[in-house]
Design brief:
This protein has helices at 3-15, 60-70, 82-92, 97-106, 141-144, 147-156, 178-195, 257-264, 278-294, 319-322, 325-329; strands at residues 76-77, 107-114, 120-126, 132-138, 159-160, 167-171, 223-225, 228-229, 252-253, 300-304, 311-313. The protein is an alpha+beta fold and 333 residues long. It has one domain. Helix 4 crosses helix 7 and helix 7 (178-195) packs across helix 9. It is globular and about 55 Å long. The chain starts with a helix and ends with a helix.
Length: 333
Amino acid sequence: MKASKKLILLFLLSAALAATVSMKHEPTRMEKLTVPVRHLENFRFDPQGALDQRVTNAPGFVLDYLMEFDQRKDYAAYQPTAAEMKTIRETIGQLPPALKSALRERLVAIYFVSNLRGNGFTDFTMDRDRRMYLFMVFNPRSLQSDISSVLTGRELTCFKNDDPALSVSITAGAGRPGLLYILLHESAHGYDYLNHVTPYVEPGIPGAPKFTPAEKPFTRGVWKAYSEPLAESDFALRKKVAFYGLAGGPKLKISQTQEAYSQLGQSPFVSLYGSQNWAEDFADSLAFYHLTQKMNLPYKIILSRPGAQDIIYEPEQNPKVRLRFGLLETFYH
């Protein structure tokens, strides 16, 4: 999950007493580059170090930044165990070549933070020439749970449970660490920050170039604006998609899951999460492309009810999703 989602929530909370604020208002924090995380010199960065050597304890100014925007007081730096560091090294080694190359050059640090809301996110810092670098933050549960558990947990935050007999689960590779999916997704965001696969990763970054959706192959013919697909790509329940309690969610009922996934299957989006905006669309598209097409892992959304046959959705089999596979293959050359 990108930092922008967390930051938009804070913006809305702080403005609630003053006025009615639209969720489409661009977060003013993007115009404020005075916080310590925005300055590369505040980080310890060895560009020659291996990516796993950039795993380090989150410094106080990073924890303060995270807690301020999440309105939390219980975040703490987490130091992975030796066994978990082995998992981290192995998972980094499975990233697509283009993503690994970009991270080697511009990834400043990887932090694990206990009690983190969500599974992880990628944010930016800048050197004195306004050149962009990255840091990543992950929830330790991504090391302690497999992909299926991590994805199922995320998916359930999208629904209000109005039907306890109905369950939603995602199967995506038993025994594979949740970090594999989270690192793929967040590394895709990082690559997007640096190379503009989409017109921009989040609105309002000072000095960042902006492109129209038609100028970028990934968004062309799919997106009209940052969080607004073209009519032929949209689906009726998409506007109710919200995760982790952000944007007033959850707004969908679990009794609407069959309708929601059926509508998703008529769109070019590989997940409900990816349908939220073009940045999440790219990050989830590349993550699931890698898992299903390069690692031959399953990706099944399963609706179960006692005494009834399971309803199974396989989004990567959707012809509209598969039409975009050629754009994703370029990350392997």
